[in-house]
Amino acid sequence: MPEGDTIHYAANRIRPVLEGVVPDEVRTPHPRFGRDRWPQRLAGRRVESVDALGKHLFLRFEGDLVIHSHLRMTGSWGVHPLGQRWKRAPRRAWLVVRAGDVEVVQFDGPILELMTAGRVRADQRIRGLGPDILAEEGLDEARFLRRLREDDPTRTIGDALLDQRTIAGLGTVWRTEACWAARIDPHRTTQAVADEEVLEAVRSIGPRMQRSAKDGTQNRGRTCYGLRGKPCGRCGTKIRSGHLGDDNRPVYWCPGCQD
Fold first, then answer.
1. Catalytic residue at 3?
2. Alpha-carbon distance 169 to 71, whole Å?
3. 4 three-state secondary structure
4. 219 pLDDT exceeds 80?
5. Rounded distance between C-alpha atoms, residue 135 and residue 139, angstroms
6. Is there a catalytic annotation at residue 55?
7. What is the pLDDT of residue 171?
């Protein structure tokens, strides 16, 4: 699943194309939108802003209409010069927004909806999100800790850090990297992890995610994720892997220096 930095990176690429612009064309090729009349409803409306919150992306149009996207495991955003071959097959496009000679394309859904601004504000999927690790003003650490401590204290810290209601934007990659950086075994319960330890974890990973949100280099410089059987760069012990939490998400850790 794309993590918060991937979504912020998509927003950063889309923003210069669409923000402040009345699109020349809006198309919804996917059959599910056949009766929804998005092109007619959005015709002549300026895009007021393009922003991201956690793993959610929003195209906000004047007149209080908002396109909301969540990519889950399958979706993707692309920005392509007109006439350039898209990164995925045209039949997989759900939304095409053209401004001048650039097309912004959303592929493979799975959550793509046109909402009123009021409905967005009331939507519990969005209202219930924890603080965004990539918030422009910085992570609200007090709110993050409060959400974490309100959760089940017997939950593993590795699982808790993936809960978007606790902290928005972290996924399996950055959760793994954060725990490694702070020397925290992801299998420890949240009650066994001190506030300063978990703050060290998110503080260590925030700048790396910020860089990735700007240049799209999420896979660069991994220290633990995906390195099963490789020697830990800190202590030389072989990295281990497994699955964690109710969703059985992959996790990597070093048994030599994460405790």
1. yes
2. 13
3. helix
4. no
5. 6
6. yes
7. 95
Annotated active-site residue 250? The verdict is: no
Q: Which two tokens stand for residue 125?
A: 């999927």
Answer for the pair 24, 96: CB distance below 8 angstroms, yes or no: no
DSSP 3-state assignment of 232?
Answer: coil
Q: What are the tens digits of pLDDT across the range 84-96?
A: 999 999 999 999 9
- Chain segment 135-172, per-residue pLDDT in tens: 999 999 999 999 999 999 999 999 999 999 999 999 99
**Of 184, 158, 146, 178, nearest in space to 248 by CA:** 158
CATH numbers and ranges of domains, the chain: 4-127 (3.20.190.10), 141-253 (1.10.8.50)
Cα–Cα distance measured from residue 5 to residue 3, given in angstroms and rounded to the nearest whole number: 6
Pick from 215, 204, 259, 256: nearest CA to 234: 256
Of these residues, 23, 29, 39, 55, which one is catalytic? 55
Q: For residue 223, give both structure tokens.
A: 């220290």
